[in-house]
Every structure is written in structure tokens, then in C-alpha cells.
Amino acid sequence: MIDTDFLKYLEGFVTDKRKETFKKVLDERTKHFTVVLEDIYQPHNSSAVVRTCDIFGVQDVHVIQNKYSSKVSRYVAKGSQKWLDIKKYNQGANNTQDCLDTLREEGYQIIATTPHNESCFLHEFDITKKAAFVFGVEKDGVSEYTMNQADGFLKIPMVGFTESLNISVAAAIILQDITTKLRASNIDWQLTTKEKELLYFDWVQKSIKSIEKITERYHNEIMK
């Protein structure tokens, strides 16, 4: 539950232009698609994918950390990580399974991105269903464990000698294609009113320097 009085108080510290930007961005955000990064070890790759998700309006990113601790480079991500919900799986005995179970509970089909299987070509992909696109570790791709549990496979058509793309490039191509089609469709892809309200509240707080002191001041004032 959002404290509307507190929100109004905080909005006084944010410019009208910024508040309007938040609302415009929220109208373009989606959870119809999400991205899974499985054991990505190069920070510039994971950071570039996070930035791509922000650019194309994908709100949630799921990060599986079994072997490697994936980090986001502020230089590469350009602050985009601040506006996304990044969910990390690094506490359990089987972080991959925890992630897949969570996604399925939320209604997602698991789509492994790979050029090697009898995969669906990107231009043929059915966008009507909620989908979580899994991108695997740089050299080996999506793990066999995840491949065995995937509901489908997706590949980008390639006609050169090289049979794979850098993970950040692949993510950009896929997300640009599917989100463009999504916005041109009749699918109910936007965030719910409640989701928008919660994110707006979160973003307003993240936009304010010394938010802890301002929050403390507010509570002190209402206690008088």
C-alpha cells in the first residue's frame, strides 16, 4: 500500500518534467516478456543487456548466478539498472531451478536462445504468450540443464560463416523485434495500474538525493 500523502510530499522534490517522463516511460513498460541471464561472467555483456531491456521497455531481468557473480557496470549500463527490477538467484543449491520455477509460477514459457537446435526463427516467434528469454554464458551458451527444461528455442537467422552473436547483440536484436511487434498487436502487454503506481513511487524515491534524510524529516513532521 502506497502512502499517498508521503508520495505527494516526495513529488515536491522532483521536477514536473521528470514526473512526466516517468509516466511516459511507464506507459511503455512491459512484463509480458522478460530476460534471464544465466551465469554471465563479463560485466560489459550483462550491463549491455540490462541497458537494452530498459531501452525496449522490458521491466524485469532475472540473473542466475551459479558459477559467476554477474555485475553491472555503471559505465556500460548508463544508469539503466536503476529503473529495472533485477532479480538475482544466488542463494540456493540450485539457483537455475529456482529461477525457472519462479518464472513458470508467473506464467512464463521458458525460451532458450540458441542457434544449434531446431529453433524457431525470430520472425516466426509467437508473441501472444508470456515468454522468458534465456541468454547463456558467453562461450557455451544456455546450459544443458536449462535447455532440457525449455519450452521452446529461438534463433536469429544468420547467413555468414560465424554461427553465433555476442550475447548483448543477440539480446538487442531479439528484444527490438519482439517488442516492436508487441506494441503493434492487440495483446494486453502493458503494466497494470497497480504495477505502474508502485514503480512510480519507487522511481520518485530513487530520484531524490538524501532520500533517507527527507523521509526522516517527513515522519518527524507528521509526528508533531
Describe this structure in words.
With 224 residues, this protein is an alpha/beta fold. It has one domain (31-189): Alpha/beta knot, CATH 3.40.1280. Helices cover 44% and strands 14% of the residues. The chain has nine helices and seven strands. The protein has helices at 4-11, 16-28, 43-55, 74-77, 95-105, 144-149, 167-183, 193-206, 211-222, and strands at 33-38, 60-64, 85-89, 109-113, 120-121, 131-135, 152-155. A seven-stranded parallel sheet has the order 3-2-1-6-4-7-5, with helices on both faces. Strand 1 (33-38), helix 3 and strand 2 form a beta-alpha-beta unit. The chain is elongated. 30% of the residues are buried. The model has no long low-confidence stretch (mean pLDDT 91).
